[in-house]
Design a protein that fits this description.
Length: about 110
């Protein structure tokens, strides 16, 4: 079976998380991802039997795009995500390659 890992199964069962992952993918940002805090908080809640959060404390989107380094783009994307979801906790951050030159991005 493709999703035998219980961790992955748990993530796939969270409709909002999967929807947000797809939402970020639809932005077509190069080398982008949602910060691990969102997933960590969800897994923590599941493991401890807490009610699922409808609005997370923060949802960080990180990406690297050498072709567009404008801060305005980050602001526009952040505003778009906030308006689409009604969640003011979205944060878009450009990652500078110089910060992590050896970082390997794994995509599904």
């Amino acid at each position: 079976m493709l999703y035998e890992n219980p961790f992955i199964q748990t993530i796939i069962q969270h409709e909002q998380l999967m929807h947000d992952l797809r939402r970020v993918r639809s932005l077509h940002l190069p080398q982008s991802y949602i910060g691990a805090g969102y997933i960590r908080n969800y897994i923590w809640d599941v493991l401890h039997g807490y009610d699922l959060r409808e609005l997370h404390s923060d949802i960080d989107v990180v990406y690297y795009d050498a072709q567009d380094l404008r801060e305005e783009r980050d602001i526009q994307l952040e505003q778009q995500l906030r308006e689409e979801t009604g969640n003011s906790k979205w944060s878009v951050k450009k990652r500078w390659q110089e910060q992590w030159p050896q970082l390997t991005i794994i995509t599904a």
